[in-house]
Amino acid sequence: xxxxxxxxxLKIHLWFIVPLxxxxxxxxxxxxxxxxSAFAGMFIDLQGEDSWxxxxxxxxxxxxxxxxxxxxxxxxxxxxxxxxxxxIFSSLATxxxxxxxxxxxxxxxxxxxKELIFEDLLLVPALDAGLSFIVFVLPxxxxxxxxxxxxx
Length: 152
Hints:
Layout: H1 2-6, H2 18-27, H3 30-47, H4 55-67, H5 81-105, H6 114-151
């Protein structure tokens, strides 16, 4: 019980749209992926409490450009690809967003604390990756096992 309440102070904002952007990276051409990421970032910015509208859109577009080049190392037919790419995308987008906000607020150097690095760059992307595994990959595994069981 204490373990659960130790995370109560965390302000966790999961990006539920990231696994869908990973699908777009693998299935659609670059202009479509950039427009999708811009609209997804704008949607997140409009829901957030930040005063900088467009920062997440820019971060998502830059992250699309970076992670699109990683497609050759992570194949779309592998089970773990979606979770790994979700973690990478979420970490990069968070880092780009933090750098952008820091530059716009003109606070140099950025207050990089251990908590910020752990929570925003490791924990939340890991939760995003776990969410993508539970929502997208796990049902496919269960359906595949059920299909094998039905045919045997």
